[in-house]
Amino acid sequence: MKKYTIIVLALLIISGCQGRYYVVEESTKISNQQTKKDDKEMNTHHNLDDQKTSRDKVSTNEKQSNTKKPEQIKQPNIEISQNPSSSVKESPIVVKKEPSKSIKKPVEKPVENKDSIQVVAQPNSIPVVVNKSLSLPENFVPQNLMYLNVPFIFSGNSEKRMMRKEAAIELERLFAGAKKDGVTLLGVSAYRSYRTQKALFERYVAIDGYEKARTYSAVPGTSEHQTGLAIDVTGGNGKCPAEDCFAGTIEAAWLEQNAAKYGFIIRYPKGKDMITGYKYEPWHLRYVGKDVAVDVSTKGITLEEYFNTLPVSK
Ligand SMILES: [Zn+2]
User: Fold this and answer.
1) What is the pLDDT of residues 36-64, one digit of tens each?
2) Confidence (pLDDT) at 314
3) Per-residue pLDDT, 74
4) To 10 degrees, what angle do helices 165-180 and 250-258 make?
5) For residue 217, how many other CB atoms are within 10 A of its CB?
6) Pick the catalytic residue: 170, 224, 251, 281?
7) Annotated catalytic, 281?
8) Separation of CA 193 and ligand 1 centre (Å)
């Protein structure tokens, strides 16, 4: 019995140990499986981590590339910032250009004014030649302006009714002389101040530009009307005031024949526009004094030719 018992116990012990071993083995297997699972998960995490890492890497790359890009931007910046040295090189060119422009402007204007327009030395002289090349001094106001006692095409006071005293007296005599001959004349426009001419001319310049404006309007200072010695007239019916249709009228013909007796000339004769700078204006009378007027009209020449001044280039 003892032997049998011992054998049973021994078997039990052995089986128990195997069971434990088995249990241990199983738990080891399980733990191994868990470890594998964990490994898988770990791998997955790792993968995620890898992805993250790769993202991170990408983002890092991006960051790097971003950081590179700014560097690339910086490089141009650096180039630009290096450019300052080159822009410093360029800047003198810019600086050169600007002064050259600013130099040109003041140079160009005097060239136009001094070369093509000279200021007359004796603006108060009765036979003074004023044209597109010969200007009165800026803001010149003639002496002894007075209102003309002759009818005008307009009513009311205006500087256009004024002339210098010497011219005014003779013009009134001329109008009276015409009337005796049955020719009625009307004043259109006599004195025009520098200020008025300036405003007028600037209005034309604003519309057509300087070069075009000066072809049909006098640059301030170059209008004979500013001398107080010139007047535009028309016939008694008031038609064709300072217009081409005044040519060929009885009044125009009378003026052609008689104006010089009173010291006036038809300042812009027909066919002399290359010299005077103006086309034929039979209505524009200019007081130059009797001697000069008679001389000019009998010779059939212009005031420019009479005083041997340079022809006005159109
Ligand atoms: Zn005129």
Assistant:
1) 333 333 333 333 333 333 333 333 333 33
2) 52
3) 31
4) 120
5) 18
6) 281
7) yes
8) 13
Q: Is the pLDDT of residue 296 over 50?
A: yes
CATH of 122-306, one of 3.80.30.20, 3.90.1150.10, 3.30.70.240, 3.30.1380.10: 3.30.1380.10
Q: Where are the domains of the chain?
A: 122-306
Span from the CA of 232 to the centroid of ligand 1 (angstroms): 5
84-129 confidence digits (pLDDT tens): 333 333 333 333 333 333 333 333 333 344 447 899 999 999 999 9
Written as six digits, the tokens of 167 are 């011219």
Cα of 284 vs centre of ligand 1, distance in Å, is 5
Residue 138's nearest CA partner among 125, 159, 120, 126 is 120
